[in-house]
Amino acid sequence: MKKIFYLIPLFIFGCKSATTTDKAVTSIEKVKAPYAFNYKVEESSVSATLKTLTSDAFEGREVGTPGIEKSAVFLEDFLKKNNVKPYFDSYRDVISNFKLPTANIVGYIEGNDPVLKNEFVIFGAHYDHIGISKDGGVNGDKINNGANDDASGVTAVAEIAKYFGNNKTNKRSILIVFFTAEELGLLGSEHLAEKLKKKNVDLYSMLNFEMIGVPMKADYTAYITGFSKSNMATKINDYSGKKLVGYLPMEFQYQLFMRSDNYPFFKEFNVPCQTVCTFDFENYAYYHHVDDEFELMDTKHMTSFIQDILPVAEQMVNAKTKEIVLK
């Protein structure tokens, strides 16, 4: 997530309190019975993807380095192995708003409904991180492997790609996007959002995954950014049959809705585009730190969350109408 801690002084002295929001929008309606869904997410698969992305061989996945190139190749291979086709001529959407060559990785799963396939849902997460520290690091370690930020989110999206790529249960078309240059100011998502807008893509919604590697201490699993902007939270809980996502006041305080890759799509398309996250500012001490390592990730929690989000994704892409709407 882009530079959130740099905003602390701004919040203390210049932001309105979250209590100024309409309290009514923070409530969640009663959810319905769970959706019948038989697919099982394997923790071994979650762990394997996460461990690969956080390997020292990838050197912290900084834009413009050999490490992020290795990451891109790994993600391309993952999509190909799981029957997800490229959306463009290749999986790579080379961005034009950065001086060094770097690309979003974009996969395409065409919808199976003759009408609804013309509508798109994007599932995304950023695969870049901050690379190798220029100072002495910590205990001789200089590589910022970015396990929580955001290899965890990439792993969730990879599992979504794996499910839909191999089962093809989606009526709407799906774009699987691994964004580059998020850490540099959402450059990858800005580039792709503008490109898709010029192509007149009919975007229904976009769900982004950011920092889901450790659980929250709350009566819900994750929070959603821009809670009051749409009925996304209500529909996610409705689809999952439980209170899967909730409202986190700190999200409003730090304006996180505007600080991850959902935001450029919201700006361009004016449709529900939001991020789910489990980093609550108190449950993980290693944001942009060399100790943000695979070993500190709770893969059981991640697997459980992905297991819960998959039937949500399936109902989202298969709803007869555009049920998720802006408020």
From TrEMBL:
- Please report the stretch or stretches of sequence annotated as the Peptidase M28 domain: 104-306
Supply the Gene3D superfamilies for this chain. Answer: Zn peptidases
* Superkingdom in the source lineage: Bacteria
Q: Where is the signal peptide?
A: none
Looking up InterPro entries in the UniProt record yields: M28_fam, Peptidase_M28
**PANTHER family the record matches:** METALLOPEPTIDASE M28 FAMILY MEMBER, PEPTIDASE M28 DOMAIN-CONTAINING PROTEIN
This chain's protein is named: Zn-dependent M28 family amino/carboxypeptidase
Species for this entry: Flavobacterium arsenatis
- Taxonomic path: Bacteria, Pseudomonadati, Bacteroidota, Flavobacteriia, Flavobacteriales
